[in-house]
Structure formats: structure tokens, C-alpha cells
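Look over both lines:
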Amino acid sequence: MRRPTGSYGQYEYFVPTLDVRSVGAGGGSIIRTEGSVLKVGPHSAGARPGPVCFGRGGQQPTVTDAAAVLGYFDPAYFFGGRITLDIAGAGADAALARVGAPLGLDGRQTAAAALRIIDSQMADSIWLTLTQQGHDPRDFSLYGFGGAGGLHAAAIARELGVRSVVVPMSNLAAGWSAFGIAASEALVTEQAAIGLASPFDPEELNRRWPALEARVTEKLLQQGVPAGSIRLRRYAELRYALQINQVAVPAEGGTYDAAAVDRLVSTFEREYERLYGRGSGYAAAGFTLTGLQVHGSAKLSELRVGDVVHEGCGSLDGAAKAPREVTWYAQRGAAEITPAYDGARLGTGAAVTGPAIIEYPDTTVVVPHGCTAGIDPSGSVVIELNAAA
């Protein structure tokens, strides 16, 4: 929705937006051959019929089938033992072999190639998303949530140069999005389009900020949010005059004067150079203030990750399961006997050296060669990567 806002002939926008980019791939993503090219996704087998290894009638191999054939999953323990995977015979291996046959690949070779492809696709998407916003992936940790997040996260991190992976709260990682909804805050955003050329009039800002803040506060109060818990944050949208790259930057609270306006412009210039490179700004063109935003938030739940106390034996021996043969595509497809651990029995401080598999009822965590995994106090699995490897 929008409506005119007075003599400026501009518009006031009431629908906030989020920049959400999907860079993942599902376990149901279908593996296929097109000509002489092996492709993964975007088509999916979904939950019904699902992957071939589920034995529900699926005929086209998927990423889940590839992981099962390579040995990442215990066929008798998938989904906590509620699903028994069909890998040999007419199951996942045979389906992958059919797809790989035109390329001279057997089932395991096809599976290894498919996982390498899908991990690279996700890494490339993350790289593009971050670098377009002026970020270096090496400055971050990678969170691997969702049922298959722990399966792919370390391999993706290695391609990005990320040194730390977190599988949040271990088995709860599969329900991380639901946890986020339960623990999220109330958020209301009000925006106003504005057209001001530099030097900006502080009084115009002093007139507009309180009006936006009042609208945000009123909407939160109408939702039953206590007034004392409301936090307000200001943002301003600026660009260089006659340029198209508009950047939203944090704006300080309180009453504005000429010095506050100068600080706002300086914040914009720093953020612009961070996004587009050193020396990319052009202050001689002047500045245009195109919009104001006020974000109001308030806690709705006392649920916090820090409140979770993880229990476990802390001993690798007590958590050890039967080792199994795993094919690691990063090791030129060589299969090797790999330790497996019951994640629920690993206590705080337990350390696992890769290669290894950590299993939970709803999540499988893969610890590749050159990596170590530890359990933090909340039960999260923290994987440290050896950058040299």
C-alpha cells in the first residue's frame, strides 16, 4: 500500500520487505544426466514418493540417495530408525548407476559427483550473496541447520574458506526454523519516502522521525506489547546524487543538528565503500536522502538458547557406534572405514577428530578430514576446519 505524503509529491510505504535469498538444496533434489552433463536439482522428488532409498515408489535418485550410497547414513537408523533405507539391490545404488551409466560412472561415483556438484552450487550461491553485500565469507561462521545442514555444512565451509561450522543444538537443528519462530521478537517497521538534497535540513528530520516512531510504538502497543520493552532503531536511505545505488544505514536517535547530519553522511560513505569498494564514493556529486525507516522490536518469549543445558557422557568410548565404510569425494572418492558416534551421548567438551560421522535421530553431522568437532554447553556441534587442508 502507498499514499501521497504532502507537498513533496512522494509516497509513504507501509509494507516492509526482507531481502531473502534461497541458496539451499533439498534432500529430494533429483540427480539426472542431460547429454554428457550430470545435474542436480532444481526438480525435487518431494516427500512423496521421495528418495528411492525410502522405498515409497521413488524412481529418480536424489541427494539423499547419494548421501546414503556414500555411507553417510546408517540405513537402520535414518530418522531415528523410523525409516530403513534401501541402498543395495534395486534401491539407491542401482538408481544412481542408471543415471551415471551414460558417463561411465557406477552408483558410488555418481553419488560422489552429485554431492560435489550440490555442495559447490550452495557454496557459490553463498559466496555471491555475501560478496554482493561487501562481506568476506572468511569473516563468518556457517550455521548448518535443517535435517541435512550438518551433512553439507563442513564441505561448503571449506570451499568458502570459512573456518568454523555450528550445527545448532545438535538434533534440534532439524527444527531450527520452528525454534526461531517460537523465540522471535515482535517487529514493526514504518517507512517514509523523502526527497532531500544535501545539505539536509535537520529540522525536516526532527519533524519526520518522531512521527514514524509514534506509529511504530502504537502498532506494537495494539499487539499487547508492554511499552517498556519496545526498542526503536532508525535507518536512513541515502545515495550519491544522480547515482542509482541506494544504501540504508543506521541513524542515531535523538534530536538532529548539523553535526548529526554530518555523521549520518559519514556513515553512508563508509558503508558505500564497504559495499562497492574503496574509492567508489563520489562526494563531489552531493547526496540525496531518499527514505527514512523506524524499526520497533520487543521480546515475546523468554526462550533462549543459553537456557538449554546439554547432558551427555562426554566420553567418545561411551558414544561410539559401529564404524562403517564411507566414501569421501574430497579424498578422490576413496572409501574408508569411518568412526560413527551417537551424538546424544556426547557431553559438553567431547572432541571428535575427522573423518567421523555424528548421528542424531533427525540430523547427521559429517566431520571431514582435517576437521575437529566439539560439543558446546548448549549441545551445539562446533566444527573447526583446518584451513590449510
